[in-house]
Batch of 2 targets.
Target 1
Amino acid sequence: MPDFSIDIQNLSKTFGPVKALDDVSFQVEKSEIFGLIGPDGSGKTSLFRILTSLLLPDSGMATMEGYDVVKSYKIIRQITGYMPGRFSLYYDLTVEENLAFFATIFGTTIKENYDLIKDIYIQIEPFKNRRAGNLSGGMKQKLALSCALIHKPKVLVLDEPTTGVDAVSRKEFWEMLKKLKQQDITIIVSTPYMDEASLCDHVALIQKGKILSIETPANIRNAFSHPLYKIAYPDMYRLLTTLRTFSEAVSAHRFGDSIHVALKTRTGEKEVRSFLEEQGLKDVALEPVRPNIEDCFMDLMNDTHD
Amino acid sequence: MKKFLGFVKKEFYHIFRDPRTLLVLFGIPIAQVLIFGYVVTTEIKNIRIAILDQSKDDVTREITQKIISSGYFELQQNLESSEYFEDIFKTGDVKEIIVFEPDFAKKLGKNETAKMQLIADASDANTANLIVNYTSAIIGDYVQKENKLLNIPMQIKPVVRMVFNEKLKSVYMFVPGTMALILMLVSAMMTSISIAREKEMGTMEILLVSPLKPAQIIIGKVIPYVSLAFINAITIIALGYFVFGMPINGSLTLLMAESLLFICLALSLGILISTIANTQQMAMFISLFALMLPTILLSGFIFPIENMPVILQGISYLMPPKYFIIIIKNIMLKGTGFIFVWKETLILMAMMMVFIGLSVKNFKIRLQ
Amino acid sequence: MTDKPIIKVVNLVKKFGNFVANDHLNFNVYEGEIFGFLGANGAGKTTAIRILCGLSHPTSGELEVAGFDVYKQSEQIKKNIGYMSQKFSLYENLTLRENIRFYAGIYGLSKKEINIRMDNLLENLHIGHLRDQLIGSLPLGWKQKLAFSVAIFHQPKIVFLDEPTGGVDPITRRQFWDMIYQAAKDGITIFVTTHYMDEAEYCDRVSIMVDGRIEALDSPAGLKQHYHAENMDEVFLKLARAS
């Protein structure tokens, strides 16, 4: 049996009529970055709250580093670093005071674990006397991460750390996570941004409390079962509405400057062209394209759609 | 312990960095005392009185003179009989009738107690109280001065009667009421809001997943407010004493100890509220309606409990400020010691225990 | 899309004390255009949107929105725009119908008109069955789509969308953009902010703000060419990192 850091078995949780988690099971290996990818309301936050012992599951069990999240919640709370969905900082305290506070309540000091947060904290240290409320989104995120790391946790639970943060800060954030991984910290992170999936070692796609797929990002992309083409045309809206009427197409979704069309059969390329020409769309740019995580996610979503 | 101290330090930062909190903590108490002191208290000036002097001797004339020359009162008419009292109140602007019994000076001379009757129009209860108090004070002053000259102590007994509102007994005094109100506000509302704020900001999640124990979180939240509320209590008493001449007849230590007890009670209520309220708004709402209004309306602070419908009288027994006000009045005005307030003290303690018990039971170590 | 400017911004400056949130912004938005307004957190986007919506006054500069002056005619501006923010803006404890009635009522639509448009809307989105449901009980994706429908219910000239698709699943996100396209086709100018760079590609033109200034403004294709970038993500990173 491989050395798991997190082991989740048949976890379910309902809130009134809503099934937040529906028989969820997966394992996270030691010191990997595990991504939980899904839109708002898919159950990510509930799962993380169960892992951090803030919520009790209705059924099923979960362990982190071998400790049961329900029975050994005191130990769980010592070994996890948790960054909730909103940046849980005290906006009326300065950067340094925030960090010092979180250090003291975990019974440590900034000095003791400075090595671990150095790379991150150094970027916001010039502003250490500024109130956290006056920081930009990216800097708040870095401070929140520093605070979650200050007690040297074994597992880092990050709930949508990049939501609402601009593309640059997001990129920097993932670079930081990569470095942390090398310090033997297991990281489980959730995000609604599909493009961030490729930065994880394993990802679980989650929708309506159900896990759609758990794989390495590469395998998820390889598992895409339809031939996929990228099509562009000056009038994109027309192209899109036309493609949606094409009987050979499984789906047509806009992707940046082009449209991704998944076809039923591999011989589709010519058929697409002739169909579009019939509809008066000539000289479309068409080429095969490798599916990305978002293609896969939408495909899996369609499969499970009721 | 270090964790805990770090927590308390953080709480103080919160308080001192938020101008609004500071204003509520220090501005409002002072403003409230001054408002109640100056505005709500009707000013006593040129109050019209009538006198029925059935003795017409030197002493009664002297007392009458003293009352009128005090500047607070103005003699409207001299009465010849007691028949028309009610009519006089009803028709004129006479607010008080002073009656001297027959043979007033003679009785004093025989070392007997001479009786005076102070009849006040109590349709405005607060003013009536003030008027009677002022009159009694003037008489008391006269007696004291005379006694210094005489060998035999002079004994005048003013008998107070309130018309139109006979049952009025409570002495209107704004300081105890304001104190109860403010300590309630500062302690209960501020703690419940500050805990709710952590829930709202999401920082409570982090505190919960940290190794801090619930008790540490609660006590850490409460300590700054205990000290600040205590400072408030002192401020209010000082204002009452120096600005409004409110006496402190009893033991100051006992007064402070009782205040501390009440503060702790209010804080435990605040914590209880915060276990129910998830947002600052909610905490504020509950504090205002569940604490402030009853404190003002049902504790005997402004409206005498004796005049309330029976149901409300019953409810008033559940109001902690009621007991605190009784205790404070006893200590400050009557100068009584612990023996006279132990019952109320015990009730407050019991209430506090219940609130703390409920809070501990309700405080969740998890979400939901 | 026409070449008639519906938003004119000349030398817009907004200062908060010493801090310059908007530093001499200059741009036009044309009628029927989908205009992407991008920038890092804290670059000054929200400040600019607030000014354009007539919610706050600029420190200096000349601005016209829907033909009205932002200094003197903010009331007229408000009548001619729609607004939807990243935080959902319909009342959770009212039904869809009640929400629409309320918002349409604010803009002075007659009862008859409201009913006709509401029927159209419900039919177009195939959501007749949701009419009497509490908004709070709907999934996020639907809420966002409905908030958008309500924001354009009074047929404004311009609609401002502040991160309308945050946290929404990829399929709903695309459905949302279909609605945006439909609205643009109907002649409503779209002014939209987003952190999803693929969505930037869906805009006719995109401006990118860095530290209070507009560093780039062009069509997505033009920007990619100019910055030798594969996609808008790269363009954005190049611009924002350079600062």
Note: Residues 170-185 of chain C form the longest helix (16 residues).
Target 2
Amino acid sequence: MINRVDQEEEAVERPFDARMSWRLALYVRPYPRLLWLSGITVLLGTGALLAIPYMLDLAIQRYVLPKNYAGLVMLVVVMSAVYAVRYFAYRTQTFVASKLGQEILRDLRSELFHHIQKLNFSFFDRIPGGKIITRVVGDVQNLQQLLSQGIVNTLANVVLLIGIIIAMLVLKWDLALASFIIIPIMFFLSTNFRRRMVEKWRVVRRRNSIVNATWAESLNGARVVIAYGREDFDRRHFMDLAWGYFRSFMDAERLSSMFTPFVNFASTIGIGIVFWYGTVLYLHHAVTLGLLVAFISYLAMFWQPISQLGQFYNQVLQAMASAERVFEYLDEEPQVVDRADAKPLELTGDVTFDHVVFQYQPNRPVLRDISFHVNAGETIALVGSTGAGKSSILSILPRFYDVVSGRILLDGVDLRDITLRSIRRQVALVLQETFIFDGTIRDNIRYGRPEATDTEVEGAARAAQAHHFISELQDGYDTPVRERGSRLSLGQRQLLAFARAILADPRILILDEATASIDTQTELLVQEGLKRLLTGRTAFVAAHRLSTIREADRILVIDQGRLVESGSHAELMAKRGHYYRFLEAQFKLEDSGGWFGHETLAEPVS
Amino acid sequence: MRDWLMAFARRYQRDGILAVICALLYTVTLQAPPALSGLFVNRVLRGHDIHMLWPIILAGILVAAIAGVFGFGESYLSARMGQGVLNQMWEALYTHFTDLPYSYYDEVQTGQLISRLISDINWVRMFFMNFFSMGTQVAFTIIFATALIFAYDWKLGLILVVLLPLLYLVVHLFDRKVRPAWREVRAQFAVMTTHLNENIAGVRVVKAFGQDERENRRFDASLDALFDRNIDATRLWSTFYPLFDLTGGVFIVVVFLYGGWQTIHGQLSIGALVAISGYVLLLVQPLRQIGMIINTMAQAVAAGQRLYELAEVNSDLPLPANPVRPARVEGTLTFDHVSLTYPSTGQTVLHDIDFHVGSGRSVAMAGPTGAGKTSVVALIPRLYDASQGRVLIDGIDVREWDPVYLRRHIGLVLQETFLFSASVHDNIAFGRPDATREQVMRAAELAQAAEFIEGMPYGYEQLIGERGIGLSGGQRQRIAIARALLVDPAIVILDDATASVDLETEAAIQLGMKNLLKGRTAIVVAHRLSSLKAADEILVIDEGHVVQRGSHDRLVEHAGLYRDVYDIQYRDQEQVRASSAS
């Protein structure tokens, strides 16, 4: 809105970089056939194009002026054949270039996507999703254009330009040289002048995206705007932005509107030169009428390749910036990967933490020397204040991150010696924020086990207490849902996630208990589902509900990255140590009377 | 609809008319070069009339200069018209959308609305920018060039007139075939980006269930489909597009076959032949553009219709004839037998709600999700109008108040805090954009937000919201509290404000809350009973009715919904306490 601070603006262009270009060029390598084909069609098509003016010369000089109609008809037949060749060559060239581009686009996107799948959580912690998507969609598209149309068209343009120059020089070298005076002007227009235009249009695009973003924000935040009575202020602000955009648009348009007139003027000068010098030569019988006509036709062909080469130059600079961004992701090393000798393992659910140290950032350990052992089938509650390290323990158990030192053992085997696939198959995670995929309810429950039958899906939903609300929906299990805009309540989403986990039937279950206060009725339902979910497997729960904590076989109390106490609820209560004090603090918080300041407030625990 | 659209164009009528005149004159100048070439061949070369050389060259340059001026005028003026219309529509629609009632945003899919506003308005702009000037140019180029060919040789003209529809047929087929193919490409592209979006947003679940292989396959499948659609479209495109080139060639061949024969028999001068070739080439481009113009028009009409429908949505909150703006707002609040039926669904969500809160006092609302608590709250700043009964603030019906003035005196903190993509400062100063940095900092301090704000890289200038750095639920909520504090409201509404944070974060927020509530009338909605038990009065709401009311202590004593909830939330705790006390 006001004072919009663009604290992270991405570069639009980068200078030419040979190493990066080579790396890009490697993407073309798998398609030698397409490259050859495009080279041949470019030569063929350009040759045909270049032949036409020369044939005009022949038509006039050989047949029309000497009044040889039969010859003219013959020539026109040949000319038609040339046009046909031109058509087929041009057609193939367009198709091949585009196909090449699509192949590269697919390869690059697929590679990038597969690579991103392998990256660690720390990558996703660091980089907002929108940015990743922009790169996979937008930047890859930029590269594709350069690598397909860019290469083929540039080839075609260079061949055409050289062809025109040679043809003119061969026909009449001094007249050719005279008319080449306009080439520098044309180049100036297509590079310098165009660059200024490109820069102005870039300003326009940026302002336009700000206006669009403001639109989006005003509508998404419309309730807040109305509630705060900000309508007039926001409208003025929006109109300032809109008219700022208008001014930048007209500024760019002014320059762009001059572009074509300048180009036409320059080529008219070129034709004027041919008229003048051509007449001088003609009067001395050094050139023929037909040749002058051919010359003017060649001159008319000049502009297009020069213009496109100028465009190509801009494209290269933009592509360099895109390439840099795409390669940045491709060069990101996935850190959590299978060891060479990692093996799949059928788990029973036995878990050991052996002097585990873990950190997200260097020198800021969040877990310091954690050791414990859990038998298969036990339910473990993790207790501690926010930031104590509960979530970190839950994240390293399915190996989303690697420990810094120490070991985690599943059934006595180091986690890193088991394949990731087999770990993730048998260790399921239910997160605080349930993610709903685009699809039906059935698809969502089946997510962890796509081959599950409908009966199994329904069984899981029943066990999770989700069957009731699902069967009340209009299409039952076939009701389409999606992440945004689906009408599932928080509680319902949670139950779906439980069903999903039950169906996946993991040996080890990790649960980051949702803290959102779902209303109490739903909460009862969720608790019931939760109980079903926990039975028969090893479970780790970062618990907030007292009922869950109490029913756990064992409670691990975590404080500042250390395991400070462990035992059952009764044992720990009797001990009157950390756990006891923690519960006390929680009760005191609740007792402080909420938001109404009639009593003194307890010190917040932290 | 037409009147509505044309009203936007009125201010730029002059630009539009001038652009069309420029287009016409530009088209006239375009006809000169082929004639000059013909003249050059006939008079200078064939006739050896050397005196004509310079006049022809100078005329050519002069014509190019004049064409340049008109060409510039056409393109600049029509751009100004299109862009001006766009801006005026923006202004009108923006005003419209901010004037719409709060309830409008309950149902509407804002994402869809936004893309409509962006793409539909763009079609309207394209229409005003291209239709008149380009239409003029296309129509008159065809007329002039054909007429001139007729003037040189009417029989050749006739042959070309027969051939022209052939070219148009190519254009038409091209449009009919290629356009749907590209539409398919765009649709598949949307599928691909949806997959991508979902994968990135749900990456934690994907990994947790070890489904990355499957995601890879799924994404590759959508890439393959996109590839196929693209190849389909390209195949059509590469077949048709070079046809324009080819038809130009067919014309030239015809000219030479017939014109050459005429020339050989002395019926046509060689200069005329050159000139006619020039006119024939002039004809190819505009024919190609006809399809584009027709499409722009069709799209613009459809887009204009949709925009018109959007602009037709009416505000259903009538403004008072004499809006009241009392100098001092005390903040007493009365619900006088209020019922609410949503006009969009016809569903009655509140039945006979009746309560009174004195200035500086508090009322809390408890009850299941969907009971109507949020609806009660929304009636206070007049985000909706009651269907029956009255809502009074300081004894004045909210319908008598100036709505903007009323809302300025109400601080609203919702469960989901909307942060704008702006600096922390601007987000806090949202309700009072003229606030100084000191005032903003003071509000942040009271809201217990100062510490984490100062810890951010850019402090109060830090960009937050969708395009800025992410904040935790507790931090967002504290910004919202600071926002509410800064407007210094007489009435504060907390609608489930701490639902999405844990108990400890809530404790941190509570200090800020206390500062916000001090000396103001408070209306609080919460699920956690501990948050609301100290309120002066608690209303228990179920299915739109007040089913219980009273203080916490009284409500707990009597059987009812409140006691049930209390039992569920506190049973464990009480037991634990009992056991630890023993």
Note: The longest helix of chain A spans residues 231-283.
